[in-house]
Amino acid sequence: MEGVGGDGVAASAPLNQWRHDASRLFQFYLDKTTPHAVYRWIGIAVLASIYALRVYYVQGFYIITYGLGIYILNLLIGFLSPLVDPEMEPSDGPLLPTKGSDEFKPFIRRLPEFKFWYSITKAFCIAFVMTFFSMFDVPVFWPILLCYWIVLFVLTMKRQIVHMIKYKYVPFNIGKQKYIGKRSAAGSSGSRGD
């Protein structure tokens, strides 16, 4: 009875090994892209342009584009939201300052930038592949979808901006902030005539 089913396991072992090696190689190259945020986003802009050209050229797949837009809007909300929403759940960990006298606590996103980029990349790739299958080309009147998406975007962003103003957080940081102290005092103490 030892030989029963043994051939199936032996046959799947090389396939599992290949899948594991491919996964590790993919993760290796994905990890190498982590510090290159500007180039990653330029790549997404190129990918989005290719997708837009494909949809424009085919004159269809508007429902796929609408779904892609809703998904990206959902990711954007996660990217702009704090990890712990002060409105929903009080926490023992770091919270956003709500008053001017509160100490500074760094903004921690619910969806980190790398995961945001990676999710958008996967979404554009899947949507692009879907444009090659005619079963996904549902005939719709695209101006209605566009108007509905714009209204949804405006209302969602308005709510997010009101939340940001209410809890006084800014989800963007432009580089490391530098301390500009008393330069005259530092210069005068270093130039003593001793």
TrEMBL record:
Which sequence ranges are marked TM in the entry? 38-57, 63-84, 140-157
The answer to whether the entry has keyword Ion transport is: no
Could you provide one GO biological process annotation from this protein's UniProt record?
Answer: protein retention in ER lumen
What domain of life does the native source organism fall in? Answer: Eukaryota
Q: Where is the signal peptide?
A: none
Q: Which Pfam families match?
A: Rer1
The terms describing its cellular component in GO are:
endoplasmic reticulum; Golgi membrane
UniProt subcellular location: Membrane
Q: Does the keyword Transmembrane helix apply?
A: yes
User: Topology with regard to the membrane?
Assistant: Multi-pass membrane protein
Family according to the record: Belongs to the RER1 family.
PANTHER family in the record: PROTEIN RER1, PROTEIN RER1A
Q: What is this protein called?
A: Protein RER1
Q: Which organism is it from?
A: Nyssa sinensis
